[in-house]
From TrEMBL:
Residues 16-261 form the Orotidine 5'-phosphate decarboxylase domain. GO terms for molecular function: orotidine-5'-phosphate decarboxylase activity. SUPFAM superfamilies: Ribulose-phoshate binding barrel. This is Orotidine 5'-phosphate decarboxylase. It is an enzyme of class 4 (lyase). The gene is pyrF. InterPro entries: Aldolase_TIM, OMPdecase_AS, OMPdecase_type-2, OMPdeCOase_dom, RibuloseP-bd_barrel. The active site is at residue 95. Pathway: Pyrimidine metabolism; UMP biosynthesis via de novo pathway; UMP from orotate: step 2/2. It catalyses: orotidine 5'-phosphate + H(+) = UMP + CO2.
Length: 274
């Protein structure tokens, strides 16, 4: 079954919220954990206990694991393995982007069958959308997903993403349209999604995407139901996957508190599923 179909089914079962696993140093300290591989592993294990089998999608932020070198990568490998073994979908927030054989290697790392293989990965198209072809091709072959950075909410993103090209489209709109073209023949929800910040004041036209819209910036960063409604056409709301990290993780390290906060947010965004 394609990633798009699996994600759609999981969202219908659990709700639309994607929960981030972001073990940054301040959060490790707040949870009473050490800032080392042991603390990282304890953090990841608590998150797995709280979210495994309870949410549609979990998003480990790869950078926070890479910080600890090979030990951190080993923790990430185990986290991905345990979540996927039980059927919980994992998107590796790696934001990879390169060309040729290097992009092919990234694709195999995150969308292949190795120890980091995930259900989906975030990618950057800003070496040209065509540079993503190795990842798009492998994702299709392995029934995985790709989330393409389109319109990010960081202020610096506008410097490039809002440039208007010769055809009158912004660069961000071009990326959305390229993703939509890859979903044109999808049976159900497509597997090529985009990343659009929930804190933006305006977004590209998403009406033709037919793919998941991963929207970070929800909760502590200021995005919410109202901002999503303002950015996404009504007919496309069912494709939205609000990505929440800090708002949920601040409730830890209690597993029951993490579960309760996740459940609260699933209720808040239940309107996305109709």
């Amino acid at each position: 079954m394609s990633f798009g179909k699996r994600l759609s089914a999981a969202m219908a079962q659990f709700g639309p919220v994607c929960v981030g696993i972001d073990p940054h140093a301040a959060l490790l300290r707040a949870w009473g954990l050490t800032e080392d591989v042991d603390g990282l592993e304890a953090f990841a294990e608590i998150c797995v206990e709280a979210f495994d089998g309870r949410v549609a999608l979990v998003k480990p932020q790869v950078a926070f694991f890479e910080t600890y070198g090979s030990g951190g990568i080993a923790v990430l490998e185990r986290t991905i393995e345990v979540l996927r073994a039980s059927g919980t979908l994992v998107v590796a927030d790696a934001k990879r982007g390169d060309i040729g054989s290097t992009m092919d290697a990234y694709a195999n790392a995150w969308l292949g069958n190795g120890p980091l293989g995930s259900d989906a990965v975030t990618v950057s198209p800003y070496l040209g959308f065509g540079s993503l072809d190795p990842a798009l091709s492998l994702a299709r072959a392995n029934e995985r997903g790709v989330f393409v950075l389109a319109a990010t909410s960081n202020p610096e993103g506008a410097q490039l993403q809002r440039i208007t090209a010769s055809d009158g489209r912004t660069i961000a709109q071009t990326m959305v349209d390229e993703a939509a073209a890859r979903n044109a023949d999808a049976d159900g929800l497509g597997s090529v999604g985009v990343v659009v910040g929930a804190t933006l004041t305006e977004a590209p036209d998403l009406s033709a995407l037919n793919g998941p819209i991963l929207m970070p910036g929800v909760g502590a960063q200021g995005g919410g139901a109202d901002s999503i409604r303002a950015l996404v056409p009504a007919e496309s709301l069912a494709w939205v996957v609000p990505s929440v990290s800090r708002e949920i993780l601040n409730a830890g390290p209690s597993v029951s508190a993490l579960c309760a906060e996740t459940e609260r947010l699933q209720g808040e965004f239940a309107f996305l599923q109709g």
